[in-house]
Amino acid sequence: MRTPAVTSSTLAVGQKLFRLRSLTPVPVIAVCGWLLWSAKGQPGPGGATVDLALDVVGLALAVAGQVLRFFVLGWVPEGTSGQNLSIQASTLNTTGPYAHVRNPLYVGNLGIVLGLCLMAHVPLIYPVVLGFFFGEYHFIIRAEEAFLRSKFGEAFDEFVRTVPRWVPRLTPAKRGALREGGFDWRRALKKEINPFSAWTVGALLLFGWQQHARGGLPPELLGALVSLAAMVLVSLLVTKAWKKGWLFS
Q1: Which pTM was predicted?
Q2: Could you tell me the domains of the chain?
Q3: pLDDT tens digits, residue range 181-208?
Q4: Long-range contacts of 104-108 (CB under 8 A, 24+ apart)
């Protein structure tokens, strides 16, 4: 199978977006915040009953996306699938979750993003968020693939031929363990505490704002939301201290 050529401009954009991927969502979040404010908490199409169903489905999708990310980062060896500023890979991951889909972390991100969109109940948020998501990853993935092809050659081409980019295959293309020593939950926790804290606090703020705008945020519910947000932030601080060796060393 002939691999389509990737232009140098596409690679340059992908590398730039990869470096800035922690910052690029900020203007999109600002636009979504404005759309939410303009909607004034009004129910989406279908009314409050549909909104509640979408909340449940959206939360389930976001949790599933987070579980997938945690699972992947606990299995991959060091030097791959990290949170670095440049594209790098010490080995080519082709087993475990990578035997089902080439970008399992990005599939997890999609679950989180789509889940939050469903919970927002503002139709205009879908094209804004999903357009940005797939537009950015269009460039990032192609830059990553060009790097992996240059480093691993035919092994990567075989990986591309057998494993899809976005839609997971049901049966693994290749069997075997990704990481010697089994699942590293410490690594997964350290890697995922930031994204987990960000989207969970965001979801709590989203739900709280909607209830407030609809005049249905009693003190008991407000207290519960604040307590949950505080628990997430405390977990973040404790894990940060642990990562730096200030705790449990």
Answers
A1: 0.92
A2: 8-184 (1.20.120)
A3: 789 999 899 999 999 999 999 999 999 9
A4: 104/68, 104/72, 104/168, 105/68, 105/69, 105/72, 105/73, 105/81, 106/137, 106/141, 106/166, 107/65, 107/68, 107/166, 107/168, 108/65, 108/66, 108/67, 108/68, 108/69, 108/72
